[in-house]
Amino acid sequence: MSDLLDEKYYQQVPDESLAERLLIAARDRIYKDFLDQMRPGPSDRILDVGVSDVINNGANVLQRCYPQQQNITACGLGTGQQFQATFPKVNYVRIEPNAGLPFEDRSFAIATANAVLEHVGSESNQASFVSELCRVAERVFISVPHKFFPIEHHTALPFVHYQKRMFELACAATGKSEWTKEENLILMTRKRLRQLAAPIGKRAAVGFTGLTLGPFSSNLFLAFSGGVAS
User: Fold this and answer.
1) Distance between the two ends of the chain, CA-based, in angstroms?
2) For position 1, what pLDDT does the model report?
3) How many angstroms separate the CA atoms of 123 and 188, rounded?
4) DSSP 138-187
């Protein structure tokens, strides 16, 4: 049995498959939007929360693409052995789930988290997670899968996730019921991201990213640029 904590998130994405090519395209666009929204400088310290212990072409896009790897601190739940071997210039810190981040206020210029917010277990945990990112960094970029993308990311089931009961029935029929539990997955919308941004008090933007198909785009982002909300 594999000891990789994130392996279940890539079960629908076999190596060299069309699904992997689409994942790479989506995450490359997310990276572009990260650069556009955060505008990192060459000396900015960046915190990446929730990096994957699965090493493939679609995971850990910031480490794959960002030229100043030595400026990145990465956090994950596992030991990070494969991650550290693949990205030796990146500082790796092991963290506990749903606990405060082990950093002082504003330790970083930028904090980012990709495909993490939907897995923190509850709406209250989501609010705490967003607040923690905004505590430790001046600017924050969060990206998540979008509920209204026609194919649900974790199960590869089309359309049924638009309605809760249909999703439950389809997951039960296909042996994927774990994804109907809030502790494992909260399907994300622009409305939910705006709700999470409202108490923070920073200027925030919510937008489509990933495979851009307008209101059916594969991903969403929430970006805090550092200014005070008007």
Assistant:
1) 52
2) 35
3) 11
4) EEEEEEEE-TTSSB-TTT--BSGGGSHHHHHHHHHHTT-GGGGSTTT---
Find out whether 134 and 140 touch, Cβ atoms under 8 Å: yes
Calculate what percentage of the chain has a pLDDT beyond 70. Answer: 91
* Residue 106 and residue 81 in contact, taking contact as beta carbons nearer than 8 Å: no
Which pair of structure tokens corresponds to residue 161? 């996730």
Q: Positive or negative, the Cα torsion across 178, 181, 186, 191?
A: positive
In degrees, rounded to 5, the angle at the alpha carbon of residue 223 between the alpha carbons of residues 74 and 107 is: 40
Residue 8 has which token pair?
A: 């279940």
For the stretch 67-105, pLDDT in tens is: 999 999 999 999 999 999 999 999 999 999 999 999 999
Mean pLDDT of 201-228: 94
Which residue type occupies 35? L
Instruction: Tell me the three-class secondary structure of 58-96, residue by residue.
Output: CCCHHHHHCCCHHHEEEEECCCCHHHHHHCCCCEEEECC
CA distances, 72 to each of 26, 45, 88, 137 (Å):
22, 6, 11, 13
Q: Cα–Cα distance between 82 and 199 in angstroms, integer? A: 37
User: Residue 167: how many CB atoms within 10 A of its CB?
Assistant: 22
- Give the SS3 label for residue 71: helix
Do you know the residue count of the chain? Answer: 230
For residues 162 and 43, what is the distance between their CA atoms, to the nearest angstrom? Answer: 43
| pTM confidence score | 0.92
Q: Scan for tokens 């790796």, then name that residue.
A: 92
